[in-house]
């Protein structure tokens, strides 16, 4: 797992071999220990180069080993042995040097990187800290502020930035191993003492206490309950204040707590889940590895409202040529300006040229005649979308894929309006579409595997977490959101306030509670849907019967606010009040509290004390219960699909792994027991009726999440 060769007569070349990312598995660590020993004891060897095969230095510790009993030589003594070697050791960094991979490189005396390489200590995103000396070595090398930035965010830096920061000694555009060997020859025989980072003092940081206090406050705020970023700050503080050996001891203690934490398990689950959803399967048996995507060179977007503009930007940024169609001239001109500005901003951020020429604007739908794929993004209205699909079917060349950007409409109904329903899929983007990570690719019963493969591949190119889901009302994300929001409304009726509900959810880790989120997205959106469903009635009726609609409990609170013109941030009033329309700072609104009081009195409801636990159990377990229904219905292939959707698109705290992982952590029996409890109290609420899959899982002994498949009839999970 580590190959040894002698090159240029006196350089020992060690090559890590563990595809795909040369992770530091037990075998690789053993290989490094053995080959380093061999190089150091060979009198003909004057210096050593460590590199990785297949253009990647090392992706860090083998994350798959974390769940098991770790065997093989430990990382820290291995890295210390390299640092204390009496021959220069040079790391030749191509591709990535991440986590333990970078720590290994920091143990080397010199680092040469290819210009396209990326380096970082991303352990924090796995719920860990760089505990093979990274938290102690990096601050000594590049100073406390820069090290804190890298370690607490886990961000990967380019080779150019690494050079600027002082992490690497040289960057090359040529063959990195050749450059490293040449470099190793040039430094043979030089004193290595100044190159041993562990012996450096940490660069002085003025006002250390105040500095760390401020950093800790910021990190706590952005961590939203995640513990690893805080431990990272504590570890770097140890580097800044303690001798190396004591700092290492502190690093070890902090890591010991993180390593076995539920948060680390959740974050590592997310890492693998995000990769597993790419291996999609459909209930028909079609799957990612047997369905060939069609080539897409040219795409079109129809409708340049907020969503269409974001989608155009996301497509153009992949390098595709895009025809952007808007029939209204004024809208088209405004969209052109907005899209160009977004492309320019994005390009500036990424340090590339804006793809302005990649977009051609047109008022005429005929302009899409020769594109390979169209994304329709007109207003969410089935009649309008149907009309557009009929036009597209007449205009587009044979074989063009027709995708609809919809958050809830029936993809199959649209498909049935075209002569080639197999070419139709839904692409549910989230606003702003060029920023948000999530894409639900919605297949109907007639969507071809090729159409799904093409949409999934396009999503990946756009950098989206793309999840293939079946066609049903709300697909996965919004279908699960419905009971969550309804429970929040019911809690208001029973005595809670928007502030209480939001606080409980934000303390759980959501960036915004349900009411602040609703104010942001606009209360009128849900109102329109409920009107369409025939649920909205004049607000004069009172009593329990007025709150039973279509045979189930219904809260008209959202409708009543809309009738008052309170649509949220855009009108300056919603569940909260705002300084002015469009303002973002939510303030508690006495009007709302008296409105709730009057509403309860009108309906004979007596307010009771509601605590955070009840808020979490009712909102989250109702959402999770819907997730079990979705799995049982075969709409999502496995729990990881649901979890990726919720973490990347709905603000579910990543360190809690997603709703289905969370249910697994809480214990399925507990979730079932609480749902049964609330269902007894609220028999007129069907979404509190535990799903049969949840019952089956509990009856079969609550298997761990990767074994749920055995209880799911239509499983196509890949984890
Ligand atoms: C008290 C105990 C002390 C223990 C000390 C433990 C020390 C830990 C320090 C660490 O090093 S933690 C690991 C830090 N490294 C990372 O977080 C890197 C994770 N990987 C990536 O970011 C990316 O994979 C990549 C390296 C940038 C490559 O990206 P690319 O898009 O090219 O490929 P992927 O699809 O992401 O990955 C391909 C394949 O490889 C698997 N994989 C990637 N990294 C690892 C890893 N470190 N360990 C195990 N497996 C890894 C990945 O899962 C993919 O496989 P899959 O089958 O498709 O899932």
UniProtKB/TrEMBL annotation:
What catalytic activity is recorded?
A: (3E)-hexenoyl-CoA = (2E)-hexenoyl-CoA; (3Z)-hexenoyl-CoA = (2E)-hexenoyl-CoA; a (3S)-3-hydroxyacyl-CoA + NAD(+) = a 3-oxoacyl-CoA + NADH + H(+); (3E,5Z)-octadienoyl-CoA = (2E,5Z)-octadienoyl-CoA
InterPro entries given in the database record: 3-OHacyl-CoA_DH_CS, 3-OHacyl-CoA_DH_NAD-bd, 3HC_DH_C, 6-PGluconate_DH-like_C_sf, ClpP/crotonase-like_dom_sf, Enoyl-CoA_hyd/isom_CS, Enoyl-CoA_hydra/iso, NAD(P)-bd_dom_sf
Q: Which PANTHER family match?
A: 3-HYDROXYACYL-COA DEHYROGENASE, PEROXISOMAL BIFUNCTIONAL ENZYME
Intracellular or extracellular location(s): Peroxisome
- What does UniProt give as GO cellular component? peroxisome
Q: Could you say which EC number(s) this protein's record lists?
A: 1.1.1.35, 4.2.1.17, 5.3.3.8
Q: Please provide the record's keywords in A-Z order.
A: Fatty acid metabolism, Isomerase, Lipid metabolism, Lyase, Multifunctional enzyme, NAD, Oxidoreductase, Peroxisome
Q: Which organism is it from?
A: Pogonophryne albipinna
Matching Pfam families: 3HCDH, 3HCDH_N, ECH_1
> Where in the numbering of this chain does the 3-hydroxyacyl-CoA dehydrogenase NAD binding domain appear?
298-471
GO MF entry, a single one: NAD+ binding
Main location, first listed in the record: other
Q: Does the keyword NAD apply?
A: yes
Record's signal peptide: none
Q: Which segments constitute the 3-hydroxyacyl-CoA dehydrogenase C-terminal domain?
A: 474-578, 615-701
Q: Which GO terms describe its biological process?
A: fatty acid beta-oxidation
Question: What pathway is it annotated to?
Answer: Lipid metabolism; fatty acid beta-oxidation
Protein's UniProt name: Peroxisomal bifunctional enzyme
Q: Describe the family membership recorded for this protein in Swiss-Prot or TrEMBL.
A: Belongs to the enoyl-CoA hydratase/isomerase family.
């Amino acid at each position: 797992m580590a190959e040894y060769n002698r090159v240029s007569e006196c350089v020992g070349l060690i090559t890590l071999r563990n595809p795909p990312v040369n992770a530091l598995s037990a075998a690789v660590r053993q290989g490094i220990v053995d080959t380093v020993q061999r190089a150091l004891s060979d009198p003909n060897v004057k210096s050593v180069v460590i590199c990785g095969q297949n253009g990647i230095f090392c992706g860090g510790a083998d994350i798959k080993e974390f769940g098991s009993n770790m065997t093989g030589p430990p990382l820290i003594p291995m890295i210390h042995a390299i640092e204390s070697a009496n021959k220069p050791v040079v790391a030749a960094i191509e591709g990535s040097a991440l986590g333990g991979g970078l720590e290994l490189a920091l143990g080397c005396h010199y680092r040469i990187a290819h210009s396209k390489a990326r380096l970082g200590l991303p352990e924090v995103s796995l719920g860990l800290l760089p505990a093979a000396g990274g938290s102690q070595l990096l601050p000594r090398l590049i100073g406390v502020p820069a090290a804190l930035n890298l370690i607490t965010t886990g961000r990967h830096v380019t080779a150019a930035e690494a050079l600027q920061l002082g992490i690497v000694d040289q960057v090359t555009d040529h063959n990195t191993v050749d450059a490293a060997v040449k470099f190793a020859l040039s430094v043979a025989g030089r004193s290595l003492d100044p190159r041993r980072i562990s012996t450096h003092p940490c660069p002085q940081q003025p006002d250390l206490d105040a500095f760390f206090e401020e950093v800790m406050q910021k990190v706590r705020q952005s961590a939203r309950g995640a513990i690893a970023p805080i431990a990272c700050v504590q570890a770097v503080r140890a580097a800044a204040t303690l001798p190396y050996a004591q700092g290492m001891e502190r690093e070890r203690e902090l890591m010991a707590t993180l390593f076995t934490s539920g948060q680390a398990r959740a974050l590592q689950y997310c890492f693998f889940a995000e990769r597993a959803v790419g291996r999609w399967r459909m209930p028909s048996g079609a799957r990612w590895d047997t369905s060939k995507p069609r080539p897409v060179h040219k795409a079109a977007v129809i409708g340049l409202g907020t969503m269409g503009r974001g989608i155009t930007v996301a497509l153009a940024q992949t390098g595709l040529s895009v025809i952007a169609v808007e029939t209204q001239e004024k809208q088209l001109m405004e969209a052109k300006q907005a899209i160009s500005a977004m492309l320019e901003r994005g390009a500036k951020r990424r340090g590339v040229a804006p793809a302005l020429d990649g977009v051609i604007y047109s008022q005429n739908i005929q302009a899409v005649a020769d594109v390979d794929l169209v994304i329709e993004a007109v207003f969410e209205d089935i009649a309008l979308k149907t009309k557009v699909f009929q036009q597209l079917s007449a205009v587009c060349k044979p074989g063009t894929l027709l995708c609809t950007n919809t958050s809830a409409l029936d993809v199959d109904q649209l498909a049935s309006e075209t002569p080639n329903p197999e070419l139709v899929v839904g692409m549910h983007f989230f606003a702003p579409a060029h920023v948000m990570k999530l894409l639900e690719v919605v297949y109907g019963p007639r969507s071809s595997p090729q159409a799904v493969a093409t949409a999934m591949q396009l999503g990946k190119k756009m950098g989206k977490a793309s999840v293939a889901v079946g066609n049903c009302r709300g697909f996965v994300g919004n279908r699960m959101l419905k009971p969550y929001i309804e429970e929040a409304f019911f809690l208001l009726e029973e005595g809670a306030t928007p502030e209480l509900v939001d606080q409980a959810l934000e303390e759980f880790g959501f960036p915004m509670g349900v009411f602040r989120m609703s104010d942001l997205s606009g209360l009128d959106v849900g109102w329109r849907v409920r009107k369409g469903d025939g649920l909205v009635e004049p607000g004069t009726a009172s009593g329990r019967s007025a709150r039973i609609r279509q045979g189930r409990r219904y809260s008209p609170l959202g409708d009543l606010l809309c009738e008052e013109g309170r649509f949220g941030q855009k009108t300056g009033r919603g569940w909260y009040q705002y300084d002015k329309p469009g303002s973002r700072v939510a303030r508690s609104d006495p009007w709302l509290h008296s409105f709730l009081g009057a509403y309860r009195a009108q309906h004979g409801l007596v307010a009771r004390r509601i605590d955070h636990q009840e808020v979490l159990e009712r909102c989250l377990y109702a959402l999770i219960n819907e997730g079990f229904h979705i799995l049982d219905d075969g709409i999502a292939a496995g729990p990881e699909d649901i979890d990726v959707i919720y973490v990347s698109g709905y603000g579910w705290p990543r360190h809690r792994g997603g709703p289905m992982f969370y249910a697994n952590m809480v214990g399925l029996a507990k979730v079932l027991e609480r749902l049964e409890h609330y269902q007894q109290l609220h028999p007129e609420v069907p979404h509190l009726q535990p799903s049969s899959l949840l019952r089956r899982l509990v009856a079969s002994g609550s298997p761990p999440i990767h074994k749920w498949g055995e209880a799911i009839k239509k499983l196509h999970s890949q984890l």
